[in-house]
Amino acid sequence: MAPKTIIAFDFDGVICDGLPEYFHSACLAYQTIWPSTPEDLLTELQADFNELRPLIETGWEMIILLRALQQHIPKARLWAAWQIVVQQILQQENLNSAQLIEALDRVRDRQLQTQLDQWRGRHQFYPGMVKLLQNLLDQDDVTPYIITTKEARFTRQLLQHQNVDFPAAQIFGKEQKQPKTITLKQLLTPEVETFLFIEDRLKTLEKVQQQPELNTLQLFLADWGYNTAPERSTATKQGIPVVNLSQWVQTVTEKTR
Questions:
Q1: Using CA atoms, how far apart are residues 101 and 129, in angstroms rounded to an integer?
Q2: For 41-92, what is each residue's pLDDT tens digit?
Q3: Which residues 6+ apart lie within 8 Å of 32 measured at CB?
Q4: What is the rounded distance in angstroms from the CA atom of residue 173 to the CA atom of residue 217?
Q5: What is the spatial distance between Cα 83 and Cα 68, in angstroms, rounded to a whole number?
Q6: d(CA 18, CA 122)
């Protein structure tokens, strides 16, 4: 039986804060590509990396962000023209996204095999999110989904460690190789009466707004995720509610009573 209510979550920046893991894994992947780079040189970039994390749309771009910082590209230029900088660095270094994806997945897999506890420990679930997911999974007429640019297997590993048995079929990860808008359209069947989608990336929500078929979705921007004050202001102007954690939990509770 099709669910009457769907609640779709982004993962990184909405359910889980993995910023320490992003930086650690990005550094490991970086050193497989540029092995002569001293570790302490990368460590010095962490504060700037954290500040610029809202630029990242997919994980492999984290390696490019480190390269840009290592090359002393001004932060103002990164904020203003991130995708142009990404393409310039790829061209300069004779790289492509597939190589960077492989490098990042390889170092993450190695950590899962040899340093699982440390890898898990670099992720922190946002307060109340684990309980919220568990409650939603217990309801018959609500189906939660996770739509993420992270590999689904990494996402599920983290959820299982929190005792959240999230069905694999309800996690759409990077391996789907399609925009989140396509996944949302696939989930939006005629039987669905209420469809909530929460993201921390404004550009993703804007792409949803541009799809007429998705105009029934209720969109939310998570203010606790990887976004900036100007983005939150823009979201409000565009009619996208900006919610904090307690507001989001209350919204979900009211919608699923």
A1: 28
A2: 899 999 999 999 999 988 899 999 999 999 999 999 999 999 999 999 999 9
A3: 103, 106, 107
A4: 20
A5: 12
A6: 6
Tokens of 76: 């103002």
Residue 186 in 3-state DSSP?
Answer: helix
Task: Compute the half-sphere exposure of residue 115: CA atoms within 13 Å on the CB side of its CA.
Answer: 12
For the CA atoms of 64, 69, 73, 76, the dihedral, rounded to the nearest 10 degrees, stands at 100
Q: What is the CA radius of gyration of the chain?
A: 19
Backbone φ and ψ of 76, nearest 5°? -60, -40
pTM: 0.90
AA letter at 87: Q
Contact 23, 48 (CB under 8 A): no
Q: What are phi and psi of 42, to 5 degrees?
A: -70, -40
d(CA 61, CA 150): 12
| 43 φ/ψ angles, rounded to the nearest 5 degrees | -55, -35
Can you name the CATH fold of 5-17+125-255?
Answer: Rossmann fold (3.40.50)
Any idea where the domains of the chain sit in the sequence?
5-17+125-255, 19-121
Contacts of 161 (CB under 8 A, 6+ apart): 120
d(CA 43, CA 24) in angstroms, rounded, equals 9
CA-to-CA dists, residue 72 to 41, 48, 130, 170, angstroms: 12, 11, 39, 41
Q: In whole angstroms, give the CA distance from residue 110 to residue 125.
A: 22
Rounded to an integer, what distance in angstroms lies between the CA atom of residue 9 and that of residue 222?
A: 10
CB contact set of 191 (below 8 Å; sequence gap of 6+): 2, 3, 4
Over the stretch 161-207, which tens digit does the pLDDT of each residue have? Answer: 999 999 999 999 988 889 999 999 999 998 899 999 999 999 999 99
